[in-house]
């Protein structure tokens, strides 16, 4: 797992494993991108949970949502998790 963070020196560095776990267990939103039936992107913030033991991210959303419909139709998804506070971090 590689997650980049930018510190006060504005130089990107990779987080170590414990920093990455702490980052993923924070209360940030995940920006989930799916592709709809027209081929257009659908990007929405969602709550997520990181399960450390299995190293899986679980996204919380309604099973009737457009996101789920898009994923069932086109299973490729893209996501971003970022923190707006210094030091800036994201995945």
Strand content: 35-45%
Number of strands: 7
Regions with pLDDT < 50 over 5+ consecutive residues?
2-10
Q: Sheet with the most strands?
A: 7 strands, antiparallel
Percent range of helical residues:
10-25%
Number of DSSP helical runs: 2
How do the helices and strands follow one another from N- to C-terminus? EEHEEEHEE
Radius of gyration from the alpha-carbon trace, in angstroms: 15 Å
- Average pLDDT score: 82
Quaternary structure classification: single chain
Give the distance, in angstroms, between the N- and C-terminal Cα atoms.
10 Å
Structural class: alpha+beta
Q: Shape from CA axes?
A: elongated
Strand order of the largest sheet: 2-1-7-6-3-4-5
Please name the defining characteristics of this protein.
single chain; 91 residues; alpha+beta; seven-stranded antiparallel beta sheet; 2 helices; 7 strands; 18% helix; 41% strand; elongated; disordered N terminus
What does this entry show, briefly?
With 91 residues, this protein is α+β, with helices and mostly antiparallel strands. Helices cover 18% and strands 41% of the residues. It has a seven-stranded antiparallel β-sheet.
Describe what this molecule looks like in 3D.
It contains 2 helices and 7 strands, in the order E-E-H-E-E-E-H-E-E. The N and C termini lie close together (10 Å). A hairpin with a 4-residue loop joins strand 6 (78-83) and strand 7. It has 91 residues and is α+β, with helices and mostly antiparallel strands. Mean pLDDT is 82; it is low at 2-10.
